[in-house]
C-alpha cells in the first residue's frame, strides 16, 4: 500500500499520518523528521539542510528528491510506504510521479487534509515536542492533545516524558508564514503538487478543523 499525505504545516498531518500508518502497517516516511535526525547527528546532509529549515525555506530539490527516492528503495518500503512532507512543490510531485511510473509502482491513496491558514498557524505555535518521541502528539492549543501536568510542570500526555520542547521554526512567525506561502501556492508550491495528483489519481480530502478523533474517523471511513 503506497500512500501520500498532504496538509499544511499545523493541520495535524503527522498525527493523522501515524494513525494511517498503524492501519496499513507501512513505514511512515516524514521528510522533516529525516532532516531533523540528520541535523541532530551532525551529518553532511544535516549541515546542508539546517539553514533552509531554520528560515522556513524548502531544502533544495537536488538534495531532497534523491534522498526520498532512495529512501523508498529501502527494504522496509517493499511492503509499501506512507510519504509525509514530500512532495512539497510541483517539481517534486513531477519527480515522484515519474519515478513511480518508471518503476511501475502504484499509488493507492493520496490524502489531503484541508485547513485554513490562520488555524494552521495557531496549531503550529501550540505544538510541544516530547523528547522521547517527537511523534507523540502534544499541543497546548488543542484540548484533545493537551500535554499532561505533573507538579505544575508540562509533561508528555502519551508517555509522561518530562522534557518538552518546541521546534525553533515553530515559534518564528516569519518562518511559519514562509512555510504556508509555499504550501498554499497553487502555481509551483505544494498545492500545485496536490492539483497535479488530482489530475492523475483520486485524492481523498478530509476536513482538518474538527478534533483529532473526528478527523481520523472521517479519514479511516474514506480509506475503507
Ligand atoms: P516539516 O517537519 O514537514 O514541517 O518540515 C520541516 C522543514 O524541513 C521544512 O520547513 C523544510 O525546510 C524542510 N522540508 C521538509 N520536507 C521538505 C521537502 N519535501 N522539500 C524540501 N524541504 C523540505
Question: Can you walk through the features of this model?
Answer:
- This protein is an alpha/beta fold and 224 residues long.
- The chain has a single domain (2-116, 174-223), classed as P-loop containing nucleotide triphosphate hydrolases (Rossmann fold), CATH 3.40.50.300.
- The protein has 9 helices and 9 strands.
- The protein has helices at 13-24, 31-41, 44-55, 61-71, 90-103, 117-126, 173-184, 190-198, 212-223; strands spanning 2-6, 28-30, 81-84, 109-114, 129-130, 148-150, 153-155, 164-165, 203-207.
- Strands 2-3-1-4-9 form a 5-stranded parallel sheet, sandwiched between helices. A two-stranded antiparallel sheet has the order 5-8. Strands 6-7 form a two-stranded antiparallel ribbon.
- The longest helix has 14 residues, at 90-103.
- It is globular and about 55 Å long.
- The model has no long low-confidence stretch (mean pLDDT 94).
- Bound molecules: adenosine monophosphate.
Short overview:
With 224 residues, the chain is α/β, with parallel strands linked by helices.
